[in-house]
Amino acid sequence: MKSNSIEVRPVAGALGAEIHGIDLADSLSDEQFDAVHRAFLDHQVIFFRDQVLDPDSHKEVGRRFGDLNIHGYYESLPGHPEILPVLKEPEATGNIGGVWHSDVTYLPEPALGSILYALEVPPAGGDTMFASQYRAYESLSDGMKEMLEGLRAIHSSDIFTNKARRDAANSIRTTKLTEVDETIESSHPVVRTHPETGRKCLFVNGAFTRRIDGWTAEESRPLLDFLYRQAALPEFTCRFRWQQGSIAFWDNRCTQHYALNDYQGYRRAMHRVTLEGDRPV
């Protein structure tokens, strides 16, 4: 698809498209914005190559799509609280995002999306996987869909506030967690309806979902484990190979993502801005 010299090239059957013919450092015209926004909704995650953004222009790109979130637990880029540095030095063994998840779902209004910009990448490895939660829901049986209807789940930020977990993470990661002890918990629908497309999708993830609302953790585990597997089936995914200057912009409302940690001994440096979202329904 082409619009105003913008070309949209799908990268997989389930989700994902590369956008060509646009420089995000330039202010987007209304027509360009509409074309990018449509590709974002149609493909769930969109990718750009050969971009050059400083922190201020990165934030401006984000603000074109919504208000920016400030992460409550990770250290931010000095002078730019809206930017999360996703950094792994060669000696670090742990990375950020090494589990299938959607961003900050513990918030009452989880993120709309995130825009991740690559500053430095390893010669190989460090790809990011994305999974369509539309496809994950739509492929369920009618009986399972009926059972999930009306269920809610509790999402928690306790992986950031538990001191033992936080200390363990900080010992192996470059980007550090701050010593914030307040845990945030929110109840969200297990199946949410996307506020712009009207499509239904799964909305539970292994990083932040703790139990079905009104159930014990033990009772919840079999169902949640099944849904986590369903969410990341290979046929629902795409894989993005980063290059310096690449950008991934994903819809947190209907995708999950997974950062592969397979580049030990090399540096990987990225900046992320996250867009404020709404209350799932």
Task: Please give the structural blueprint.
Layout: E1 2-3, E2 6-10, E3 17-20, H1 30-43, E4 45-48, H2 55-65, E5 68-69, E6 84-88, E7 113-120, E8 128-132, H3 133-138, H4 142-148, E9 152-156, H5 158-161, H6 163-172, E10 185-189, E11 191-193, E12 200-202, E13 209-212, H7 217-231, E14 237-240, E15 247-251, E16 255-259, E17 268-275
Parallel strand pairs: 3-4
Antiparallel strand pairs: 1-2, 2-3, 4-15, 5-17, 6-17, 7-15, 7-17, 8-14, 8-16, 9-10, 9-13, 11-12
Structure commentary:
The protein is globular. The mean pLDDT is 96. The chain starts with a strand and ends in a 6-residue tail after the last strand. The longest helix is centred in the C-terminal third of the chain and has 15 residues, at 217-231. It has helices spanning 30-43, 55-65, 133-138, 142-148, 158-161, 163-172, 217-231; strands at 2-3, 6-10, 17-20, 45-48, 68-69, 84-88, 113-120, 128-132, 152-156, 185-189, 191-193, 200-202, 209-212, 237-240, 247-251, 255-259, 268-275. The strands form 4 sheets. Strands 1, 2, 3, 4, 5, 6, 7, 15 and 17 form a 9-stranded mixed beta sheet that branches. A hairpin with a 6-residue loop joins strand 11 (191-193) and strand 12 (200-202). The chain has 281 residues and is an alpha+beta fold. The chain is 24% helix and 27% strand.
